[in-house]
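Reader question, answered in our methods column.
A reader sent in the components of a multi-part assembly and asked whether the whole thing could be modeled at once rather than chain by chain. We filled in our standard form and ran it. Here is what they sent:
COMPLEX SIZE: two components
ENTRIES:
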Amino acid sequence: MNSEITKKLLKLIGLILIISFGLDKLVFFSLNKISDEVMTGQAIGKLNQFLSIKDSTDFIVFGNSRANHHIDVDLFSKNGFNIGVDGVGIAYNSTLINTLKNDKKQLILIHIDTKNFFDPNYDGSDIRGLKTKYHREKNITNSLNKSKSLSVLQRFYYSMNYNGNSIGILKNYFKPSYNYKTYSGYDPLTVSNSQQEMRDIILAKANTSITEDCMGKTKMNTTAVNYLKSIKSFIDNSPNKKFIFVTTPIYNDTCNEDNKLLSTLMQDLGLKYLDFTNLYKDTKDNSYWKDATHMSVIGAEKFSAYLSEKLKPFM
Amino acid sequence: MLFNSIEYLIFLPIVFIIYWLLKNNYKNQNILLLISSYVFYGWWDYRFISLIIFSSFLDYFVGQKIEDALDKNKKRWLYVSLLSNLGLLGVFKYYNFFADSFATTMSTIGWEVNSLTLNIILPVGISFYTFQTLSYSIDIYRKEIKASRDIVAFFTFVSLFPQLVAGPIERASNLIPQIEKKRNLNVTLIKTGIFQIFIGLFRKVAIADNLGIYVDSVYGNYEIHNGSTLLVATIFYAFQIYFDFSGYSDIAIGSAKLFGFNFNRNFNFPYFSRTLTEFWRRWHMSLSFWLRDYLYISLGGNRKGIVITYRNLLLTMLIGGLWHGSSWNFVIWGGIHGLFLSLEKYTFSALKIKTFNALGYIYTFIVVLIAWVFFRAPDFHSASTILSEIISFNYGSLFIGNINTFINAILLLALGFVIDLKIFRTNIPLEDYGVKFSMLKLSIIVSLIILLLCLFYSTAENFIYFQF
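And here is the structure of the entire assembly that came back:
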């Protein structure tokens, strides 16, 4: 490689770095501007809505899709919000809980699943779901840095923060999915006539008996436990808030051992935990279910009414 | 080490810089390439480096023996190479498959056989480098090339990192002469190499991996999905595997250019084919030409009458299917292609035509799509269930899954299709396309690709063809 080629190669690399850096920042700051206006959709709208109202509500539900689809906050409070999001775990929720103001009086319901705590592969990477707020919200940025779950390239190319979300953000910017002012964050699942047959097949497949060894999934995942402990220390510093951890029903849980271990852990940490995993196990009413882990609107409404009665002493 | 990993992003420039610092001595460059290739491969599992070294030693030695031997002994040494290479492939890739099939067959006739399967790990890339070394021995036997007498050059030929784990399956006649002489880097190689690497990354990381999310979720629960969902997932898979594998090949070919090597083309817009015959001239070209030259022609090709020709075609495709993996589904996949290739040959000869009209594009895509069901489904039962559901035309509402992911996949697929169509229409191979651009224009295009990667990258565990 002669010096002429070296010069040309360096010129090409230099040009690529400069142009890509500039283009990246242009897109990143444009998306920042646009996304700040978006209050609907799972890409960023729901998170924006949560961040704008989190300290003015008196009841908040945190969790994954099961929290999102199972808990109708309107049955608990006229001023509540359900920030349950598809596919997230304890890392995501712990980070969001730590954004709350300590002194505000609130009832906080945290949906947890045994799957999260006994999955040997769980690495807390669900925290990446908050990357749109990286370098834009202090607590979230700190948590993301601490988790080391972001790519090192993200320090150079900021638009990676919007990976996978840009189209959704643009769509909701130009055409909001719903009226966010009347949205409580609860998304009930309906089962259409054509989906019922599919649902019944899924439930039949899930209708197996208890496996004694729980397929070896009885060892606590330390990442999940560490995030739980982070919530615990937040609780200790928030005397005006009440925290309740809850697991909502599953159609047919085939392992009880993990539930017992999780209950013991919660007890050891001095956390209030209500486990409803097997609440409808013997009911065998398929209309309650969308699939084996998600309740339909029928099941969710019945469960929410039941849970709101249980939580009355805490409200 | 994956092409789409941070490790490779660091590895490639380091090797590149040291390599060109050694520009005055190509033999030292070869030593560097050899060591780098073993590091690259050892990143997965260092234990299997010994297997590559064994294969390399064997064929280096046997290659010289074939060349030096008298006529009768040439064949004996060729058999040594064939049996050793195919033996290794057989043990690591097919032992469990045949042991399991044997046990199943015996049990159907009432003879229960204890499990004969072993806990064998498939070494990454074994199918690719085995075919590469096999062709080397056969070419020497056919007196098409000379045996290499430079051990480092030969070992580098077998293990050169850009093509080691998933091809392109390079012929010794193309690669060894390049390794055994001084290489030069010029602006054309830089431009075309960088352009192809980034196009490859876009195809793999943005298009294929986003399509894969939907495909995996549908094929993972195929029983609960209707015909329309299974059809869309299969169409997605057709493009996922194309963009995944052609993307891999692009990065491999582009990376090789940065070291002064020209690899053979591996994909040439296969879905723009009017016939299945044309499809196989455009899809995984390094494998299809390998099968043609070393299997189909060795079986007699089309020189022994029409019936033998069809038999050879079918047999070549069945073995081509089995090359992909130890499963009857791959054999059926190959069988479907072999059957339709034979039917095409018959139709062309009966109607005295050379190709189909524009409807041929649709016919070819449908046949390829049907075959992909067997390629993707985990077993025969699921493949036949999926296929019968699609063919029943009992279409209901489409399963979307995560709306963001689905829309991203559709948009990226459309973009990939438009880019392919644009390059295809220029009649300039993708391998040479980068030379068209000025430095500034190329920088802008690469920067736009980087932006698309930032906004749409998806993180799949692997490249699909690594499993083969």
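What stands out: The mean pLDDT of chain B is 90. DSSP finds 18 helices and no strands in chain B.
Send us your own complexes using the same form.
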